[in-house]
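Good morning C.,

I know you're traveling, so I'll keep this short. The sequence:
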Amino acid sequence: MFFNSLAFAVFLPIVFILYWFVCNKNKSYQNALLIIASYYFYSCWDWRFLFLLIFSTFLDYYTGIQIEKSSSKTARKFWFWLSIAINLGFLGVFKYYNFFADSFSQLVNGFGFKTSPLLLNVVLPVGISFYTFHGLSYVIDIYYKRIKAEYNFVDYSLFVSYFPLLVAGPIERATHLLPQVKVKRSFDYQKAKEGVFQFVWGLVKKVVIADTCATYANAIFDNYPSMNALSLVLGAVYFAFQIYGDFSGYSDMALGMSKLFGIDLLRNFNYPYFSRDIAEFWRRWHISLSSWFKDYLYIPLGGSSGGMAMKIRNTFIIFLVSGFWHGANWTFVAWGFINALYFLPLLILNRNRSNMETVGLNWNFSGIKVFFSMLTTFALTCLAWIFFRSKSIEAAYEYIVRMFSNRIFEIQYLENQRYNYEIVVLVVAFVLVEWKNRQQVEPISGKYSYLRLSLCLVAIVALGTYADYKEFIYFQF
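The tokens, ready to paste straight into the viewer:
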């Protein structure tokens, strides 16, 4: 069940009505309803994996309590590592086993030994990386005594399985979400209104921007050997806006619909394509994952407290693990490695935290410098996205070589038999709107909010691809 599907358009209002008109007496009824709705939502993907979600929930709930109750350090470590091992074990089997088995087989075959790897014929459970990280952060925080264990199983279950964030985040923390689910929520008209606006804007990002860009990006990437330099450049740019519109659109919809239930989720995107360097980009892109790796991997490894060698080592570990988290393919590892290389000069020169504030553009030397810094950062990001999008490292390399060596800059026909002019205009208009939106808390609220809402709905109907639902990119992670 996609957020941009007719089935969800029926599902969400039913849950909303039951939540506020039937289960509004106390928080237990509200939480129970949201759990039932979440389990139904997840079972629509594949009901068999619902049992894996429930087992993972019970595992971390039980081990969290045992960690807190254990009087000896040995017992605490046992329950802690039991939870870590089982969680990562499930993630490894479903997501990475075939990758490692196939890669090892290719390595052995390279030395002249013939092997046939035993591969598993399993489907990756949707959202497993996200709800696994919810549970891991909870258990880690209990182990290091940052939080107390949750003894109410219903409340904890909702923290893990809350349907707006279940399949593609944001990755929530127990310190942020659990206190909200432990109290009764009262209807807040202003918050609900903001939620509707944010949900609709997320829907625009997905069906108008992401899905339209996907049509062109797929045509170019799938046929890159016959594409000229201009088309290949446009293909990289289109994919950049596809993945941003797709993932940030999902996050906006998740945050928006959650406000309808009186719950605030962590912000996941903060206009990353207006960043002035790669460090700023990663503070603004997939914020919940970046902060998760910083708190639970980078800082435990020593963070920035050691010498430069340790800082460089930890930086590369973070980016490589982040790339590998996205998928079992060397292209994701290469993408992480490239971003680490981008980050390295900033780290060495101690400039990785030099662009912390949001700035505007002025018609002076400083404004021109900011503009070209943003343009350069965006270009570097698009170059790295080529590895993320390509099916193999070899394909990404060939794509980039042809992009820089072809030297033919003219508009080409694509498979959909349309020129690129329309999509270029659409992307430019979207960039201008995003730039304006940076000054507002909610994308289409404020003055003339209902006019903006109407224009968004018109855009969804006129330009949205409802006839061809495309799943969200991050569902595969």
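Safe travels,
E.
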